Request: fold
Amino acid sequence: MKRISKSLKLVLGALAFCLLYLPVNGNNIQISNVALTGQNTLQNYYMVQFDISWENSWRTSTHESNYDAAWIFIKYTVKNEQDWQHANLNYVNGQSDGHIAPPGGTIRSASNNNSTGVGVFLFREADGIGDVNFQNVQLRWNYGTLGDNQAVEVSVHAVEMVYVPQGSFYLGDGMSDFGQFQQGTTGQPYLVSSEAQITLGGGGANSLGNSNAANQQYTDDFDDNTSQTLPTAFPKGYNAFYCMKYEISQDQYGEFLAHLSQSQRTERTEVIYVNNTNVYPIETGNHYAVPENPYRAMDYMNWADCAAYADWAGLRPMSEMEYEKACRGPQEAVAEEYAWGNDSWYLEGIYELSNEGKTNEMISNGIGKNVGNANSVSIYQGWGRPLRCGIFAASAENKTREETGATYWGIMEMTGNCYERIISVGNSQSRDFSGLHGDGVLTSSGNASFSVLLNWGFVSAVGVGFRNSEISQRYLINTTDSERNRSYGFRAVRTANH
Reply:
């Protein structure tokens, strides 16, 4: 897959810029016509202008009352040095940031904790549904002391996200066979109604119980007899946040690798043999990264890969409480429910594909009608490898939550495809997680920065677990599994600031 489709060198004012136009794709999110305009030599900024489009967009003020959005950030490097830096986008607390939204669109800057100026959200200004094509978006890039007369390459990146509004929701589904959350020891779901401190375990009436850690592969450090405290700062899901609409695609991960130095990339790639075949899905070399199936979810990601990508993109991992909110929404819990809101999963055999591995990969036969659909990599029904991000939404006839596999908010593949890596409440170190966001800067070895890893669970994945099947099952919580596996992918989130 050719990555650079157009290169344009401009000399504007005191700085010479080479604009690197990259067709960056999530589920067909496209950026084009990148240009620099509106230079201000006194305040040292340029406006980075571009067009952006993506499919299946929406905004609604009823029912779910949410919308999808593009998280947009910019990288730059002195030409031919391949030393990519994160661009500082203008942010003025509570005031106009100087960005220019396109007709029909709204731009919101990100301002949480350590990462002001890392990126912006772009979404519909009014209610609507369908594809969007925003033109002449302009973001103010404060290039600062970059210097005069340097040729610089600029790369604009975008990730499709879904807004999950502030509000109460339930943890647990009334089951108690795999460490599900519950209200004390009652067996009933627990209502999260704020971000306040929570007592974990101990059997108290208002505590967050864990079914006495039943059948967890690695148990929590609390149960019905032992209590711990979940701090106020730990993201509990009550506050609003944005969640990636799809898991990271091979194409997105390839773009990530292509914007690392050779030394940084060494830590992020590995030759993995299964049946004498290298199954790592991305071929890497000297400043390029070519995915095997660009639009499929990226697998074989270890925890260090996940943390590095999230830090590089200015995002963060989600907590296990946010995972249940992102799936269930404000609705009542259903026993043994999957991400699409009930316990019904179509398990009649392997899906048949058309255009296998391509942009328009579809399910040609085998999709269940008005019943839950998901590609399970390791159990039940599946291909043994992930399928295209959003394949069920594209293939379903009736477009119901069940057929598309969508969560209440419209997030895709939260059950199925790759396991969801999340931050557990059941470990003393993971409870230090405060929702710190990445700042776009990695170490020289290609890892997330130390301050980020300290907050997220180190490279060893302390306090990091998995969710993937029934949304309240906690069987694989606290696994500390930092290996690469065909089932292991990732999606990130970001706390909302509005």
